[in-house]
Amino acid sequence: QVQLVESGGGLVQAGGSLRLSCAASGIIFSINTMGWYRQAPGKQRELVASITSVGRINYADSVKGRFAISRDNAKNTVYLQMNSLKPEDTAVYYCNTRGPMGFWGQGTQVTVSS
Questions:
Q1: Local confidence pLDDT in tens for the 114 residues of the chain
Q2: Which of 111, 6, 93 is nearest to 49 (CA)?
Q3: Engineered SS bond to 20: which of 35, 79, 80, 89, CB 3.0-4.6 Å?
Q4: What is the rounded distance in angstroms from the CA atom of residue 94 to the CA atom of residue 7?
Q5: Alpha helices by DSSP H, the chain
Q6: Nearest Cα to 31, choosing from 52, 59, 6, 58?
Q7: What is the DSSP string of 69-94?
C-alpha cells in the first residue's frame, strides 16, 4: 500500500529554518506529482508547494521566495526547505501525492514562535 512518512517538523523561532522530508513507498515515485499541504487550527488545508515528475514547481503566494520544494527520485523522497519562517506558518504539514483525493501522510507539526 501507499505510505507517505513525514519528518523534520518542530519548534523554531521566527526567522528560522526547517527542512521537512517525506519518504514515499508503494508508488512509482518518479512519475508522481508530490505536494506539501498545511492546515492551521481553524483553517482549511491549503497547498503550500508541489513538484511534478518533470520538476515543474508551484508555490502558494504566501511562501514564494521563502520555501523550496525538491525531490530525490533515487531516495523516493520529497523535501520542503522552509526559510524565514513566520508565526503564520505554524500548522500541521502534510505530504501528498495525486492531489486532494490521493494519498496523505500523517502530518508533522511546525510551530513558529514570535
A1: 999 999 999 999 999 999 999 999 998 888 899 999 999 999 999 999 999 999 999 999 999 999 999 999 999 999 999 999 999 999 999 999 998 899 999 999 999 999
A2: 93
A3: 80
A4: 10
A5: none
A6: 52
A7: EEEETTTTEEEEEE-S--GGG-EEEE
3-state secondary structure the chain: CCEEEEECCEEEECCCCEEEEEEEECCCHHHCCEEEEEECCCCCCEEEEEECCCCCEEECHHHCCCEEEEEECCCCEEEEEECCCCHHHCEEEEEEECCCCCEECCCEEEEEEC
